[in-house]
Amino acid sequence: MSDASLPYQIEDLAPARAARRIKGESRLVQFALVGVSLTFLCLFLFLPLISVFVEAGARGWQAYREAILEPDALAAIRLTLFIAAIAVPFNVIVGIAAAWAIAKFEFRGKSLLISFIDLPFSVSPVISGLVFVLLFGAQGYFGPWLAANDLKIVFAVPGILLATIFVTFPFVARELIPHMQSLGSADEETALTLGASPWRTFFAVTLPNVKWSLFYGVLLCNARAMGEFGAVAVVSGKIRGLTNTMPLHVEILYNEYMGAAAFAVASLLAGLALVTLVLKTVLEWRFADAIAASRRH
Hints:
MetI-like, Sulph_transpt2, transmembrane helix
């Protein structure tokens, strides 16, 4: 080995050694960070989640079954699923359209549209629910017209649906926009050049490229739709058996000192969250290579 090659070898090895030093700077620091993270997860996530299931089954299977099959509880479950079944597909369609417009085109008002998409993140859910009351309530701006036409939005299912759509709207769009922007328009332009129609290009090229971001957005949107409390509490009126979703029903049961029943219904919400998490984890594990390739692309 010649001395002339030595500086180049040292220069080439320096970044690798620096990277190793950064990654393994101090095992004590690594263990401390991991320990703090695990402690936080145990105290604020795992223990409360475990306590929900423990309290739900504290009085036995029969009491748990009665709490779930009670008519008001069944009505709350049906209403929650109904609202999610409408709000999530609506936000998927509108979110895809908004993300496609923002990522693929330049137009006036683009920054304003992005600000509107982010609006539910910056406004308290309680305030957003109050806005619907001020607009559609009996004394609201559209209240007299609605009353004259025998229509009811606030303290009814339409108000709950509007509030849920509002608070869950950003999730799909916000997952898709950065991914679509990173992909650019080369694939779509190639497909159009080869003779594909715009709709075929969208369904055969654009959607497959962003399917994982879309899936994550749908998961987040569905979880928020089923668990939303603040906005729904304002517009629903909390009418048992009619306008109570599962989170509202849990609150009413707990306030009436029916702890076992409250935890039983809460365990269903927790179970839905766990199913969502497991489904996301399984798909990430099963299709890890495809997800990584999509993100690199």
